[in-house]
Amino acid sequence: MKLVWFALAYTALALQLQADDWTGHWVAQAPGRAGVSLWLKADGMRLTGYMSGRGGETSIAEGKIEGDRLSFVVITDYYGEERRANYTGILSSPELKITLPAMGGRGPREVTLTRVSTADPPPLPPTVPKITLPPAKDVPYDGLAKTPPMGWNSWNKFRDQVSDQLVRQVADAMVRNGMKDAGYLYVNIDDTWEAGRDGQGNIRTNERFPDIKALADYIHGKGLKMGIYSSPGPKTCAGYEGSYQHEEQDAKTYAAWGVDYLKYDWCSANQVYDYHSMPAVYAKMGLALENSGRPIVFSLCQYGVVKVQQWGANAGGNLWRTTGDIRDTWRSMSGIGFDQQAGLESAAGSGHWNDPDMLEIGNGGMTDTEYRTHMSLWSILAAPLLAGNDLRNVPPNILDILTNREVIAIDQDPLGKQGKRVARNGDLEVWARPLAGGSWAVGLFNRGDAPAKVTFHAADLGLSRITAIRDLWEHANQKAAAEYSAEVPSHGVAMFKVEGR
Ligand code: GLA
């Protein structure tokens, strides 16, 4: 009996020791993960604590310890939607290996943490109350963006390497290579142009933009327009100066510089505003732009949360992002284009557009077939066409895709109605967009891994007869029939303008 007690006490002590092994501050070692850490408190098999990262501290929930393994859940409120992320870990002293859940299109990843303190987690800092704004009055329509804006934006290719010199070279190239003639007019500087503010609170540009007014003059001299970027928060997504508490002043500055387009990106606004105030926060800048004395297209960038399609236009928006950031991959582009736009079509119309993000055409991560799908789908979606590649030296195959006038005409169709999926058979999808004058744009898409025959029928368009079919990539008329089939390569498209009755 004595022996049994002894064995039990020994096991309990061993378990206790093991459990205590988890308590403390664990810090990630991997490059690029700096700043991510875990404060843990082990209590028998129970694990509590929190995770610290760039976005602040988040408590862990449902924490469990079993032998040398742990698991916990991080529950976050993503703009009103509960998001659960499951974490697991293995302790192999002195390291703790945590498996991060799949996130943002990336698969699960392992991160190694080491313990820098064995202290209990200090109490979490009190949460700072966020600002709630009263609902704003509707901002009247500014008369801009009657068709989806077209142009170029620096972010997808150049990130923080954008400069005055690059933007001038891009503007020159757009005139030279036919992009301007094809309708691409806006030359948009994305994040990282900002410095701090001067003594009067005026926003300043950094050393990569020595004279932004002169740059705007240069761009205007080419018959093009200039766009710029900011955030309603204190900082932009890349950590540069935002417009928080300087909205009217910044709108006036942009107008004085000759800015024609503003992309306004939520980013750190999350830290100061209650997200329910998002419509009012955007309306504040919408109104400031309208009072600035210059017509400025207003592009909302808040990743499509808080049902932006219901209030974006009332906040003065001419376009609003409907998703998170696009990447130059088939998976990202097709997921956004095919899957995340469904049901949003009724919100789009002349002057106010759904924005499934900028183009990746020519950035090298997809095939020409996939880029043709990108261009075709964005045009059927009546999406803004903002090239995101290096326009200074575009290979002819990419230029052909970006400047296909017949496809651009679909995007820019004056009826301004966004298209939608009208038929689906596994990986094969038929999308259609009604056009001015009663004709239709039809896209036959093959999302599968092998070539396939895709068919559309007059009935898919609500027609009883088809009288004309024109292939917009082959630039050729086809024989009209009540149904029409095309061989479509894997990840490819066949696109038509169709007339009928
Ligand atoms: C966010 C936006 C991107 C880009 C970057 C810049 O991620 O969604 O389009 O503007 O910020 O930091």
Layout of secondary structure:
Blueprint: H1 2-20, E1 24-28, E2 37-43, E3 46-53, E4 56-66, E5 69-78, E6 81-92, E7 95-100, E8 109-117, E9 150-153, H2 155-158, H3 164-176, H4 179-182, E10 186-188, E11 194-197, E12 203-205, H5 212-221, E13 225-230, H6 247-257, E14 261-265, H7 269-272, H8 278-290, E15 297-301, H9 308-311, E16 319-321, H10 330-339, E17 353-355, H11 368-380, E18 385-387, H12 396-402, H13 405-411, E19 420-425, E20 428-434, E21 440-446, E22 452-457, E23 466-471, E24 476-478, E25 483-488, E26 493-500
Helix pairs in contact: 3-5, 6-8, 10-11, 11-12, 11-13
The structure holds alpha-D-galactopyranose.
Structural summary, described in words:
The structure is a single chain. This protein is α+β, with helices and mostly antiparallel strands and 501 residues long. It folds into three domains: 2-117, Lipocalin (Beta Barrel), CATH 2.40.128; 150-418, TIM Barrel (Alpha-Beta Barrel); 421-500, Immunoglobulin-like. The chain contains 13 helices and 26 strands. The strands form five sheets. The chain has an eight-stranded antiparallel beta barrel with strand order 1-2-3-4-5-6-7-8. An eight-stranded parallel beta sheet has the order 17-16-15-14-13-10-9-18. Helix 11 (368-380) runs parallel beside helix 12 (396-402). Alpha-D-galactopyranose (GLA) is lined by residues 155, 190-191, 236-238, 265, 301, 325.
Key words describing this protein structure:
eight-stranded antiparallel beta barrel, Lipocalin, alpha+beta, eight-stranded parallel β-sheet, 31% strand, globular, 13 helices, Immunoglobulin-like
